[in-house]
Structures are given as structure tokens and as C-alpha cells.
Design brief:
single chain, Alpha-Beta Plaits, eight-stranded antiparallel beta sheet
């Protein structure tokens, strides 16, 4: 098991039932934590599994009002045609509508976001190699440790939304950290666990599923169940 200390200015781990006017969960979700570990180091031969989340600051919400475009990005096929020059690029215009642009674009709108302010966590996870790659376990862990210690990442990790960058530092789980989790006990109910398949990629059963778990905080620590546990349910 290895760990990262993660912090930032803002974060928004959007509750799926409130996706229009975004409202953040009070703590980072296992899927968002997994994404930060993958931003530091990832290979298709293994999967990151989050074990424990420690809260180092009390959750504090802040209301943000942001302009968002109402159109979605086109399909992957269309984007590839743009990249190869087969078709002309058609950008999404933030300002304008059918009257001004002569298109069916919807323009932008203002939406409210209830984000977290100054989030700070210590997250522990481990690498689970896919069958056939178990012998590379130590090698994967050593590569992750080297990259995390030097602040290297494949892309800038973020806290729920890409406009909220995450900063990280490697944590040695063998050393007792002087910064303790906050004194908090709470039951925050059902929380998003992840959206992935429990099966090996490429198999017929490997279709993504939404998983949930009961987020219980004891002394500032969320013990995240394994994805094969009965505590993790599919919606």
C-alpha cells in the first residue's frame, strides 16, 4: 500500500443526483482518488485500488457561479476527422445562438457550483496487476514511488473538475505521520464508489457499471471497501 498527500484550492466531487447545479460530496470519492494516482503513474497491466482516505481538514463549501457551454463535444470519430484534416473544424461557440451563428448551437449559461474550499487529504491505495503480470508488482510500485517523490505526472491531476488542479506529495505508509486526521465521525450515506468493470478488460462481461458504497467516517478516516466486497453495490 502506498500513499499520496493531496490538496488544492477548490474541489468538486459532484453528486450525480445534483449534476445540473453541481453540489460536491463532502469528501473525495474513491474514483476521483484513483484518477489522481493514475495521473502520476498508470499502465494497462494493472489497476489502482483505493484503500483509505484520511481527511486532514474539515469540509467547507463555497458557492461559485460559472459560465458553462450547453453543447457537448462531438463524437470521437468527428474529432479524429478534424485531426486528420478530412473535415473542417466546427468549434463550440461560448457566445451566440442560431440567430447570430446560423447553427443549432445553444451557447452558454450560468450555473451554480457548491464546491469544497481548501480540501486536504491523505489517500492510500495499492496496485493490483491483471492476471499474468503479478511478477511485476514490485517494479510497478517502485516506479510509482520514484515518480511521486519527484512530482512527476502524466497529466495534471485534478480534484473532481479539471479547473481545480490537485497538488500531491508522496507519503510513506511505513512512517507515522505527525499530521493526524481531523476528529470527525459521520455517516454521509451512499456515495459514488467508481464507474468501471470488475472484469478483465476485453472480456464480454467487461461493461462499465456504476458502483456505490456507504461512506462512513470514523475519527476522520474513510475505510474504502474492496470493489469485490458486498459493501460495494451496483446501481
Amino acid at each position: 500500500m502506498t500513499g499520496l498527500e493531496i490538496w488544492g484550492d477548490f474541489a468538486c466531487f459532484t453528486r450525480p443526483e445534483l449534476k445540473v447545479e453541481r453540489f460536491s460530496y463532502p469528501v473525495i470519492t474513491p474514483s476521483a482518488a484513483r484518477g489522481i494516482f493514475e495521473a502520476v503513474y498508470w499502465k494497462p497491466e494493472f489497476r489502482w485500488v483505493v484503500d483509505r482516505i484520511e481527511l486532514l481538514t474539515m469540509p467547507r463549501w463555497i458557492g461559485l457561479r460559472r459560465n458553462e457551454v450547453k453543447d457537448k463535444a462531438p463524437s470521437e470519430r468527428t474529432i479524429r476527422q478534424w485531426m486528420t484534416g478530412k473535415t473542417n473544424i466546427e468549434p463550440i461557440w461560448a457566445d451566440g445562438d442560431a440567430f447570430w451563428l446560423g447553427t443549432d448551437q445553444k451557447g452558454r449559461t450560468q450555473r451554480q457550483t457548491m464546491a469544497l474550499q481548501q480540501p486536504h487529504y491523505r489517500v492510500f491505495a495499492h496496485i493490483e496487476p491483471w492476471p499474468g503480470y503479478e511478477s511485476y508488482q514490485r517494479k510497478f510500485e517502485a516506479q510509482f514511488e520514484r515518480r511521486a517523490k519527484h512530482g512527476q505526472c502524466i497529466y495534471q491531476p485534478y480534484l473532481g473538475c479539471r479547473e481545480f488542479p490537485a497538488y500531491f506529495a508522496w507519503v510513506d505508509d511505513r512512517v507515522d505521520n505527525p499530521v493526524k486526521p481531523i476528529a470527525l465521525d459521520a455517516d454521509w450515506g451512499w456515495m459514488l464508489y467508481d464507474v468501471f468493470s470488475r472484469q478483465i478488460p476485453g472480456t464480454p462481461e467487461a461493461s462499465p457499471q456504476i458502483q456505490l458504497f456507504r461512506c462512513v467516517v470514523r475519527s476522520g478516516v474513510v475505510e474504502v471497501p474492496h470493489y469485490t466486497s458486498e459493501e460495494v453495490v451496483s446501481s
